[in-house]
Amino acid sequence: MHSMRETPPTSRSEWARGWKTVVSGTLGASMSSLPPSALGIVLAPLTLSFDWSRTTVAASVTIITALALLLAPLAGRMIVRWGARSVALASVTLSAFGFFGFALAGGDAWTWIAASVVFGVLSAAAGPIVWTTGVASLFDRQRGLALSIVLSGSGLSFMAVPMVALSIMEAWGWRAVYCLFAALSLFIYLPVAWAWFARDDCFPAAATRKAAAPTAAKQGAGQSMRSARFCLLALFTILMAAVEGAFMIHLFPILQEGGIEPRTAALAVSTLGVGVIVGRLLGGLLLDRIAPSIVLGGMVASLALASVAAWLGQGSFISAIVIAVALGFGLGGTTSAIALLASRHFAMSAYASIFGTLVGISGLCFGLAPTIAAQVRELTGSYTVLFPAALGMLAVAVVFLVAFNRNVRKNPQPLGA
Predict the structure, then answer these.
(1) Angle between helices 11-32 and 143-151 (to 10 degrees)
(2) Diameter of the chain by CA atoms?
(3) How far is the C-alpha of 46 from the C-alpha of 174, rounded, in Å?
């Protein structure tokens, strides 16, 4: 009896097998971006209602992302042990209860901090790591595009949430915003993930990988995280995330202080989500065709454009649109490229741990940046000093990107394989 040689998957067969996972993963990724996409809208009402500082309110994102970093290795091990689907369903359910915690906060500042801690713990496994793990396991030829579509879920949140949150807040108050997020998690995200997110037996060679994954993942991740390659990529990620976090969370008040009225500013912030989606989809198409370093260079240039426009061109709706779209475009392509680099240049068996750590590091810096920016705003009375600082950080990020590319050229094989 002749042994049958496995036929390599085509792009069409990959999408036929994995499109439902991509759709459900995209929605899941949008859920993890709900808190930061709404924070700029509720920032002023919270400070006025409870006499909290901007730093206290902005610390919510810092706490959530710090916990995501601390718990990222645990989330990776959970995915390896129980599968991406099981972890996804549990994390979506727990995140809904975390959203209710925000709605119950008020009065003393510690209640807001406590709600942030609770949400950070409950949602630690609900970030990009779980959704991209499922997709990366189903795609090879079109992996860059598939990952980009999933990661564009954050763009959906930043596109839809500002206007919706402002309208709900004006009608029912800021607490209703977080109640809406909880309802979306339970009645939209969870059913779609249950119906469409791939079961573990859909993944190629699931049984073999399940038996060997814990040891292989541990060894591959340990070797990779001690490498210069990983450190350079992590440093690049840190600088990019710091610029993105400072601008994205404070974009609404930045535009308001530049002379844009609230509803117009919220509309401009919504176009940031359009930029994220376009950046991720275009980045995904390009990542399957050209070197990721070229894509990342374009994203750095886009963030630099946003910084210059915010520094020199505030005050008009057109400049606000340019700032928001350029910022979103830069964020979109960056995350997709880093996800692809993690899957191509490190062992796939350690992908969940490697990308989870990069996401955690990125998230921590993304979360610290708004708190630092809020402190700078309170000390100086304006956001102006942030703009030249962002340009300097982007210049240093380019240096780390060039060094990473040199490392890959010297040893193109995936580390930890």
Answers:
(1) 20
(2) 79
(3) 8
**Which one, of 309, 79, 302, lies nearest residue 198 by Cα?**
79
Least confident of 45-59, 108-122, 233-247: 45-59
For the chain, count helices (H), then strands (E). Answer: 17, 0
Query: In this model, does residue 211 exceed pLDDT 60?
Result: no
Question: What mean pLDDT, rounded, does the chain reach?
Answer: 81
Give φ, ψ of 415 to 5 degrees.
-75, 140
The 10 Å Cβ neighbour count of residue 211 is: 10
Q: Is 415 helix (H, G, I), strand (E, B) or coil?
A: strand
* Burial tier of 347 (Cβ tally within 10 Å: 0-12, 13-18, 19+): buried
pLDDT-above-90 percentage for the chain:
20
Distance CA 193, CA 198 (A): 8
Tell the residue number behind the tokens 């690049």, with chain if given. 236
Cα radius of gyration (the chain):
21
Give the pair of three-digit tokens for residue 415: 């580390």
CA quadruple 241, 246, 247, 249: dihedral sign: positive
Q: Which helix (H) or strand (E) holds 187?
A: none
- Token duo for residue 122: 């409950």
Separation between Cα atoms, residue 87 and residue 72, nearest integer Å:
13
416: DSSP letter: T
- Tell me the two tokens of residue 153: 């879920």
Q: Scan for tokens 């520094």, then name that residue.
A: 311
Q: What are the Cα distances from residue 334, in Å, to 55, 238, 279, 281, 376? A: 27, 12, 8, 11, 26
Cβ pair 391, 243 in contact under 8 A: no
**Res. 61: pLDDT tops 70:** yes
